[in-house]
């Protein structure tokens, strides 16, 4: 079978290292929601990480990350398909993880690591049954010092069939500084 467009995108990227996977696990392990996904959601590949500029920021427009997960029973509805809220959780978590992967102390770091959601809009196209391996592609469409626009497409890993898409807007504010007189 020929490679899907999603697989071609993922194959052109840098595979996630064990260090990337460990850091990802550390960041998302603080979550209590969707615990069934926490052990099986993993980074798969990333675009090259841009250099930090003189202001401590990165140029990330168009930057992509790919994550993978297999649908488990704990995230399905009573029909046995992945629940819409699980799709939205994946969009929220993976888009946030893409920002965290690229943060610096002056750019989307603490105290609001990865920022806070302003808007999350979902579209659902097809169902995913238990056992379906998912490919999650995150694109940072636009990001500056305070606002990020992200897109996330979730598809069946084997067939390339798109299951859902989400558009996520996030806001960030750096550490408060004290003014000197």
Automatic annotation (TrEMBL):
Segments forming domain Thioesterase: 79-156
CDD domains: PaaI_thioesterase
MF terms in GO: fatty acyl-CoA hydrolase activity
Keywords tagged on the record: Hydrolase
Gene3D superfamilies: Hotdog Thioesterase
Domain of life: Eukaryota
InterPro entries on file: ACOT13 (IPR039298), HotDog_dom_sf (IPR029069), Thioestr_dom (IPR006683)
Family classification: Belongs to the thioesterase PaaI family.
Matches recorded under PANTHER family: ACYL-COENZYME A THIOESTERASE 13 (PTHR21660:SF1), THIOESTERASE SUPERFAMILY MEMBER-RELATED (PTHR21660)
Protein name: Acyl-coenzyme A thioesterase 13
Native species: Vanrija pseudolonga
Gene this protein is translated from: ACOT13
């Amino acid at each position: 079978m020929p490679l899907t467009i999603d697989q071609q995108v993922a194959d052109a990227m840098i595979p996630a290292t064990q260090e990337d996977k460990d850091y990802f696990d550390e960041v998302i392990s603080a979550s209590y929601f969707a615990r069934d996904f926490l052990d099986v959601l993993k980074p798969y590949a990333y675009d090259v990480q841009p250099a930090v500029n003189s202001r401590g920021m990165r140029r990330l427009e168009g930057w992509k990350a790919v994550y993978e997960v297999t649908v488990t029973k704990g995230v399905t509805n009573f029909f046995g398909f992945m629940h819409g809220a699980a799709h939205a959780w994946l969009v929220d978590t993976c888009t946030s993880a893409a920002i965290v992967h690229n943060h610096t102390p002056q750019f989307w770091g603490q105290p609001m690591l990865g920022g806070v959601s302003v808007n999350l809009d979902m579209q659902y196209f097809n169902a995913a049954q238990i056992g379906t391996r998912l490919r999650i592609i995150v694109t940072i469409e636009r990001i500056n010092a305070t606002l990020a626009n992200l897109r996330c497409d979730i598809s069946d890993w084997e067939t390339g069939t798109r299951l859902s898409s989400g558009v996520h807007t996030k806001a960030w504010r750096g550490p408060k500084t004290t003014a000197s007189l």
